Amino acid sequence: MLYTECDVMTPIRIFARKSRTYWPRRIAVACMIVTLIWLIGLFRFISEIPRQVPSLDHVADAIVVLTGGGGRLPAGIELLAMGKGEKLFVSGVYRGVDVHELLVVGQRAPSDLECCIILGYSAGNTRGNARETADWMAVEGYQSMWLVTANYHMQRSQLEFSRAMPDAEIAAYPVTQTSVILDTWWLWPGTARLIIWEYCKYVVALALYWLPG
Q1: Is 158 left (phi over 0), alpha (psi -120 to 50) or beta?
Q2: Tell me: the pLDDT tens digits for 77-101?
Q3: What is the pLDDT of residues 183-197, one digit of tens each?
Q4: Which contiguous run of DSSP H or E holds residue 2?
């Protein structure tokens, strides 16, 4: 049987037409699945943001405050005043700031707890906070700590600190900020942007957490 050029080219044309529609559909479905997974993760992340301060029965070796948001330092100073840790380590402090200034900011008399507060200047982000704190804890011989930071920042902070200090006991002390409205976050553009950006950084930190090294 003889085949004409038309007979040979017809299956090729059919395959080419299918290919032009097959891959875009596959890509669109993959994008939809990734978006769905991302959204499910976002809502889970928001649901796990701590809303309440934990029980203060626990006493740790140290209290660690991460700079960057209102209310964190006063909370850390209050924990120190209550005897919930031997020392307060403030990570991520700007160069030139001293303990006296921080105590004034924290609304406590400078003479009160100045001797028990140590400042860390080397950290520029959350991972840097974890590494800086790990080095300080190792020098002090400490094994347990209160971690004080904003509640929306707590999950990523715990992840980074657990990676830097896998054997340390880390108790979370989340600080609530009145400017961050969690219960109706989707109605507040500022809160929504903050939470979504924090979630994206958390996803990156989570991926790095499972990587070796």
Answers
A1: alpha
A2: 999 989 999 999 999 998 877 787 7
A3: 899 999 999 999 999
A4: none
